[in-house]
Design a protein that fits this description.
The structure is a single chain. The chain is of the alpha/beta class. About 40% of the residues lie in helices and about 25% in strands. The strands form three sheets. A six-stranded mixed beta sheet has the order 5-4-3-6-7-10, sandwiched between helices. The chain has a two-stranded antiparallel ribbon with strand order 1-2. A two-stranded antiparallel sheet has the order 8-9. Strand 4 and strand 5 (about 90-95) form a beta hairpin. The chain is elongated, with a radius of gyration of 23 Å. The two termini are about 30 Å apart.
Length: about 250
């Protein structure tokens, strides 16, 4: 924030050598803690978030993003966001105030994505290039995207990163029904699912379980905290409990 003339007992590591050489006398740097945070939300709006049993994963993602934006406003912090599919759909710069947070939520509610897939690496690279000050980056996604360990490692080194994993019960357990034709909403690929087959349901459960574990383990290895949020459940108690644990640590 400023410099002051060196007095005996000051930390010599804080001497500002440029100022000291101009003034022909030693001066030390004075630091002030930056209290204002930047909360940046990376929100997945790809087609896979349109599914859900009781509510869509996208509805839950928008609700959670709105809660976090409101919390930032209450704490007088800046909040911004990036909406991504297989491209950057929208960039919302980080600013303060209720009006700005309301605009962010409105953009989430009215977003009509052009892309259908999910390119998380491109979203992370955009944040790395544009967000210079350290902040809290929260990725809100179902993580139905290829692993992105290189980009995630870079993001976690520069910012405090939290992954909010949006999950629907259908992601974890296929219903015991007859033959069902399924379409991948992002790629358009079709398969016929034998819901009556215990073997098929086991393979389905194991495939998505392994994918989820791979993400969770890989994120934690890179010091990214993970919170799983399930559609149909009330997210505020889980969010409060999660941040209380962080605060205690």
């Amino acid at each position: 924030a400023e410099v002051s003339e060196y007095v005996e007992g000051d930390d010599t590591r804080q001497i500002d050598w440029n100022v000291s050489s101009r003034m022909a006398s030693p001066y030390t740097k004075i630091f002030r803690e930056e209290r204002e945070l930047i909360l940046f939300l990376l929100v997945d709006v790809s087609a896979s978030l349109g599914i859900g049993t009781e509510e869509s994963k996208r509805d839950l993602a928008v609700f959670v993003a709105g809660l976090l934006a409101a919390a930032a406003v209450r704490n007088s912090d800046r909040v911004g966001g990036l909406l991504f599919s297989d491209r950057i759909e929208k960039w919302i710069p980080a600013r303060k105030g209720r009006r700005h947070a309301a605009r962010l939520v409105q953009d989430l509610l009215t977003a009509e994505p052009v892309g259908r897939g999910s390119d998380l690496p491109a979203a992370i690279r955009t944040v790395l290039e544009s967000m210079k000050r350290r902040g809290i980056c929260m990725i809100i996604s179902d993580f139905r995207t290829p692993v992105v360990w290189k980009e995630m490692s870079l993001l976690a080194r520069r910012h405090d990163v939290i992954a909010l994993m949006i999950v629907d019960p259908l992601d974890e357990e296929f219903p015991a029904r007859g033959l069902v034709e399924l379409q991948d909403v992002e790629s358009g690929d079709m398969i016929v699912a034998a819901g009556y087959s215990p073997r098929f349901r086991r393979m389905y459960r194991e495939y998505f379980g392994d994918l989820q574990r791979e993400w969770e383990e890989g994120l934690r290895k890179r010091n990214v905290e993970v919170l799983k949020l399930v559609t149909g459940e009330d997210p505020p108690p889980r969010l409060i409990s999660f941040f209380e644990r962080r605060r205690r640590r």
